Amino acid sequence: MKKTRQEIITNSADETIAFAKKIARNLKPGTVLCLEGDLGSGKTTFIKGIAEGLGLKHPEQVKSPTFVLMHVYKARIPLYHFDCYRLDETSEFENIGIDEFMADPHAICCVEWAEKAAGLVPLTARRIRLKIVGGSSRLIQIF
Ligand SMILES: Nc1ncnc2c1ncn2[C@@H]1O[C@H](COP(=O)(O)OP(=O)(O)OP(=O)(O)O)[C@@H](O)[C@H]1O
Ligand SMILES: [Mg+2]
């Protein structure tokens, strides 16, 4: 099993956002982040922090792109946001070319429920796992 590179327990959504902002500082264009964790564990909240850290002017626009499959945020580095939750077949994502977006060397890609599109995710993707460990406590692990 791969070693955890970094882990933290946050006790509020704001703490998760603050942690993600720090992570965003070191992200290079071309990075793919796969967010794993149960419903409500904070995947979208974490991505909001990434967007803030990348200088997005209105991070409140960061919401799960459940019905449109994808959002593009114009941050310092373009940020693509996918949510595969409603995905039944990977072909749906193949059709919109998620693999091409994930291969974009000029953008950062965040994918919620990437497990559902596993075959399309590049091997170089970083995994971020969020776990509810109490009312508003989340264990966040970066692999
Ligand atoms: N420590 C915490 N970190 C992140 N979110 C927290 C924390 N404590 C409470 N919350 C709350 O939990 C919820 C997390 O929702 P969010 O939409 O980010 O989860 P999600 O993992 O994207 O869910 P889904 O699987 O439905 O997309 C928010 O309402 C947020 O305010
Ligand atoms: Mg979400």
Verbal overview:
With 143 residues, this protein is an alpha/beta fold. The protein has one domain: 3-Layer(aba) Sandwich (Rossmann fold), CATH 3.40.50. 25% of the residues lie in helices and 27% in strands. The chain is built from 4 helices and 7 strands. It has helices spanning 13-25, 43-53, 90-96, 98-102, and strands at residues 6-10, 32-36, 70-73, 79-83, 108-112, 126-134, 137-142. Strands 1-7-6-2-5-4-3 form a 7-stranded mixed sheet, with helices on one face. A hairpin with a 2-residue loop joins strand 6 and strand 7. Bound molecules: adenosine-5'-triphosphate (ATP) and magnesium ion.
Spatial separation of the terminal alpha carbons: 10 Å
What is the number of beta strands? 7
Q: If helices are DSSP runs of H or I spanning 4 or more residues, what is the number of helices? A: 4
CATH architecture: 3-Layer(aba) Sandwich
Poorly predicted runs: none
In CATH, what is the homologous superfamily? P-loop containing nucleotide triphosphate hydrolases
How much of the residues is beta strand, in percent? 25-35%
Q: Based on the structure, what is the oligomeric state of the protein chains?
A: single chain
| Arithmetic mean of pLDDT | 91
In the sheet with the most strands, the strands line up as 1-7-6-2-5-4-3
Principal-axis shape: globular
The helix fraction, in percent, is 25-40%
CATH class: Alpha Beta
Give the number of domains: 1
* Category from helices, strands and their pairing: alpha/beta
